[in-house]
Amino acid sequence: MALDPSTLPFLPPELEREIFEIAAVVHPDTICHLMLVSHRVYDWVERIKFNTVIPKQIDRAATCTIGELVKAIESETKPAFFFRDRVRYLFIQNLPDGEIETILSACGAVESLVLFQSFGTIPSLQLTTSLRRLSIYLWDLLEHPKQLVPHSLFTSVTHLDLFDQVHSRSNHIVEQLAMMPMLTHLALWNESTPPDVLAEVLERCIGLETVIDMHGSMSSRSTRDDEMRIVSMTVEDTQYLEDWITGTQGGPDFWARADAFIAKKRRGEIKPSSRCWIEDTDGI
Questions:
Q1: Source organism's superkingdom (predicted)?
Q2: Does 32 share its domain with 64?
Q3: pLDDT digits over 35-64, tens only?
């Protein structure tokens, strides 16, 4: 006996799409199977698959690996706008310069980019005003010590994490940061910036709300009474990817934790008031 189509369950397309997208995010291991359901489900889930690209797959994130992305780009089976429209969060690690170039040339609307490595040639970082968060070795962007990074690169960046271990006036750190009109958050590696240079950065970058003194491990902790915006934090290399993914999903990454600490400090909830690191009792 044939079923009457009018008696079958029917869901509005918006609800149907939401169900499949939630399933893909919560259970990323099902993405390949979901993409076989229908053409429309394939389109919905594929967008999620390429939304976040990381070096290796982890269980809790609906993501695409760097290897899968490079293979898809080099297959040339997708139109030029495909990866530009889909890749929003990109974490690059341990890749040859050629593959970095391939990825960045195709993914021109990335919102959060981590270059967790040094690179020998200057990659195509001509990302549009979509770029909001950038983690990078600043020195690698300089072809010559006296050459400044093109201003257009940093026009829209609000959160900048610099992995360099030494910053000084000789590498034009102040000039670089002062060119960033939207910069509100800055992370610097383990006291890499001399106090006088940091003071100038804080003075000239008037929009800065949070400055993180980042440590691989917190062997010593200093106190500051003079600057409310500075937070000392520990994020080990092995934790960085997980922390970054948490942030892409709207969770409390190190930026959010630093903001919460500063807010508590401004309200007088951090004791002593000179403490600039987070403790378990802070509830952050």
A1: Eukaryota
A2: no
A3: 888 888 888 888 788 889 999 877 656 578
